[in-house]
User: Fold these one by one.
Assistant:
Number 1:
Amino acid sequence: MKIIIDAMGGDNAPEEIVKGAVKAKRELGVDIVLVGRKEDVEACLKNESCSDIPVVDAREVVAMDDNPVCIVRDKKKKSESSMAVALNMLKDGEGDAVVSAGSTGALVTGATFIVQRIKGIRRPALSPVLPAGEHGVMLIDCGANDTCTAEYLLQFAYMGSFYAKKMMGCENPRIGLLNIGTEDTKGGELRQETFALLKKAHEEGKINFVGNAEGTGVFSGNYDVIVSDGFTGNVLLKTTEGVIKYIMTQLKGVFFKNVKNKLAAAVLKKDLGIMKKSMDVNEVGGTALLGISKPVIKAHGSSNAACIFAAVRQAKAFVECNIIKDIEENIDNMKVGKI
Amino acid sequence: MKIIIDAMGGDNAPEEIVKGAVKAKRELGVDIVLVGRKEDVEACLKNESCSDIPVVDAREVVAMDDNPVCIVRDKKKKSESSMAVALNMLKDGEGDAVVSAGSTGALVTGATFIVQRIKGIRRPALSPVLPAGEHGVMLIDCGANDTCTAEYLLQFAYMGSFYAKKMMGCENPRIGLLNIGTEDTKGGELRQETFALLKKAHEEGKINFVGNAEGTGVFSGNYDVIVSDGFTGNVLLKTTEGVIKYIMTQLKGVFFKNVKNKLAAAVLKKDLGIMKKSMDVNEVGGTALLGISKPVIKAHGSSNAACIFAAVRQAKAFVECNIIKDIEENIDNMKVGKI
């Protein structure tokens, strides 16, 4: 198996990306190919005393603040950026998956137009796994699609279900529809229409839809997959980050308040560190871009070597599980006529 | 000043409602009138040795799981429920504000159709104040309106600004538009249209719009008012509750892990308790229903006496500030023609 890594994507490229790639190559038994400015990437590889990872030269970089569509519209970025080159290699079968910590918007756009969607899938979805319960909880979509139809959300539910079963180890993934109340009738037109579609699929034994989920319930351990439009999902994801940060700051205030507290906090330090790590989204790896015809994994923009390693591990598992085949084989269940 | 309290609303009615009302009467120097099943409410008053709070009899109760429109459609609930009677008293000038811990949906519906909106205001908004920064941060709307137009959101911004200035002590309230990125161009049609309206109002010196806000930024202390559609705002609010609960559970796990940790946690207990309280939404009081022509305060459904006391204190301040007059006088700025 060969994983194609965009060596220039993210805040810590190329150093940390290369470090993570080298670690993955050594520990995961996968082939790696790095894409980026050859001399820069090779210098990093040399620092790691690594001589068995090939580098494909790409002179351009998609910057975090570039307009996402540059990857398909800008003449240079379209043909010479590390991200576009990596995605084109994936399309052409020169590797089995792409990992990039670059611009989310550009990666979604590039994956959609270069690698292309699975036939029948309307929109790809960003689907990170958040800490909760035994397996974590997948949030799909969390930002690829600002506005959604009920059909998109039905497809997200199926795709999330396949992922949760194969990648998260959930036997019968419990799917919740993000809503403003748990009662069946909650929400406006979009949620009610989606609710009806999910209920129907559940009654036909195709997915395990357990009903509407509120924000309070996302982390309860009662759901394995939370289905949402990308706007709301993105707000949920970032609010979670914001609240965690806020509480950690408050806790720090308590711990450093006086000598007595400082001493007590020192005793707890190690266990609190483990707890903090368990709530770190980056630990899971990256975010799968579900609905694309080949595996594309988005690593966090601030990824360090450990995150890239985790994202490659995720990419490897994703390829092995062949979730894309599951989606392709069930595509007829995910289509909605006029309802 | 006279505050009308729905004695039958919420999980702990009427006991805790009456207790909170008695405390408010004694400590805040306001007149109170309780509305509910006379014999039940009077028994509670007797338990508190209180004889100077009048009770208006109302035989029906709007239940938490009743359809919200029952308050204007169901023959009995419309004329005899404690919530409807309280709102009708407010409409008829028999008091200055209503406080209710009953069904949010019914209260929004009842306030809208019985007390009615301020002339020119399209939709009322639920607007709780969350813990953040020096003054807290107001989230408007958090559930009254599933689907919004740019004009609604512009009106929410103005109303939130007046509230933050007079009730939260912010001199020049910083208004953020909840979005999926801070860049000016983020979001779909609704956010972009709203961004343009808010920017224009800012340039005209009418509000202090500081730009788009992400979920991560809500608790940063960089915003005093966060403007959102009700669906996303509700998810944000409930996610915040869910994450706080999740982290507190995780922390508990650390504190009780072993004897060593237990001893250390005991030292921190008091300060952690203060911290936890500072993050409790209920501590602020209730949630103002902005846009209604007279003051209506929604207390949390699980309100105890302290919450009801805080909600009455908030109602009193709301009446004294006369934010409704501010809104009425500026209504022409909040109207949007074809844009």
Number 2:
Amino acid sequence: MHTFSRKLLTEWRKLEQPFADKTFVVAVSGGADSVGLLLALHELRKLKKLNLRFVAAHFNHDLRGDESDADAEFVKSLTVKLDFELALGKKKVASAGNLEQNARNARYDFLSETAENVHADGILTAHTLNDQAETFLHNLMRGSGLQGLGGMKPVTIPDSRFQIPDSGEQSGIRLVRPLLNWAMREDTENYCHLRGVEFRRDSMNEDLKFNRVRIRKILLPMLQDFNPKIIETLAQTATLLREENEFLDAEMRKINEKPQSTEETKNKGQRTKDEQESLPLKDLRDLFPSMRKRILRDWLKRRRGDLRSLDAKHFAAIENLIFSRKSGKTVELPNGEILLKNDGHLTFMKREG
Amino acid sequence: MHTFSRKLLTEWRKLEQPFADKTFVVAVSGGADSVGLLLALHELRKLKKLNLRFVAAHFNHDLRGDESDADAEFVKSLTVKLDFELALGKKKVASAGNLEQNARNARYDFLSETAENVHADGILTAHTLNDQAETFLHNLMRGSGLQGLGGMKPVTIPDSRFQIPDSGEQSGIRLVRPLLNWAMREDTENYCHLRGVEFRRDSMNEDLKFNRVRIRKILLPMLQDFNPKIIETLAQTATLLREENEFLDAEMRKINEKPQSTEETKNKGQRTKDEQESLPLKDLRDLFPSMRKRILRDWLKRRRGDLRSLDAKHFAAIENLIFSRKSGKTVELPNGEILLKNDGHLTFMKREG
């Protein structure tokens, strides 16, 4: 067994994934990472270490014309050669707005649909330590708190992205990244070479107009001058911060589940804080600033659906509102939303019309 | 009043520092930041906004020969001109080991002694948003968890660095950084220009052999290509992470203060976890991984004095020890220290001799 496959198997065990009788969709772009992953799964299947059904899935974003089609052809012949089922998707991605984001959304929609179609238990992607480090730097430079810096998880519990269409129910399909915790990009390249298999190089991965490419080709090599192991270091930091964030989210849920301190509890019944339209100010004031911010963010997210267009200034204004002595004051949020302080509570309201 | 001084006054209020009848030592290197701070204190004193006694303190590390002496001369004539008391210190800093660290230690020792001598209530340093961002990047690249990424605090509660010599008691001297939350380096330079006062430029601040200089002169300008407000963004991230860390430390103390879950509590009396030579494994296992790590770090720090020479591998081995089923196993730490798992407890021991 090649070292690369052995390491993949070890990680598979660590992530507590099944070894038999299940189906996984494998996202394959045709680049070194996903080809390396597919080759290792091929090896582990042949050695009967993983008795699973794998369905490769390739999505053609149709952004690079002939090159995109050639990628799809490449993946097709590779999967034929290695004897993998293949699902092909193709859709022109809207270039309006954030192109990278649009492409990612379209790709995950396709992967999700494919997983539904083949009754898969999970989707595998070939993200590496390098991807984790690049994501970390991307979020860091954009401006992130602890929530944003944790990066990708090796196993993601289903979220709204993987809902069964039109049902509102979650499909239970996991997203698994079995290379994320240990593989460097050069490991996947080396393993492809060892197996004598070519991989595709995406010309957009060389285009310096994309932040992600500049991070990889300019910023990270410079950071390596400071710390030769910068990729591993940043990926490790992301993991540590994600663990801290998970603890804090659990603490938040505990606080939200506690009954309110005020008299009104009796009238309002036993609804927990996060379900309420109003938050008692006293409870908020008693919290540590960072936990107060976390609870407010979570509560606002439930009221609004997301936190879009809220920035640090809004949260500073809310903080002031919570601690100012006058009652009846408000903070205006975007889109006609209002936070009202009244009767010892913070209430979320939306203007009519 | 100049905008710079007004902002300093606003921050002074926000940091809840006294406005009269107290003494503060002001660290003055002669660079733009500390000269800007001194000039603003001069302005606020003249306008009777701050009725405080300020004692400037300059430490000559004697690393740059005539240049170092000229810095001291410059600070001397500046304080005479502005009518500030001045304490001068001079000591050749050991170049063995980490020069920057040695210089910082010698400087803080001098500031601390000066503060004792003049019965000061606090020490002011002129660290800016830039310093905060640079510190963040420095720690990030070295490899840090949440504890290390929080950066400098605007007000530091006394720690062991500010102990009264030979008494073991803490002196109660605060370290206050009244520019840290709002001033950019260019603000201090501009304010010096506005006041028509020169400042010194340290040639070591141009020497690219120092990490800190490479961060400032090469890395940060490149990060500005990604985000023009990168300094503010990174400083803000450091603040957010510090707040999260403070909450987590408070949670840790709560957990440490809880009585133990095991039978032995009765025999051992009411000692809290952090005072114990042994930690009950069950309590550790029940914790979130990040909180378990935090409690272990804190406990080991108390046993050893610091966490020096402990790395991720040691903590991974301890984690394994906690969860493995066999008893009587050990993890060897550096310098003949041993963690022993026995009778449901983790015990710290040191080899004799």
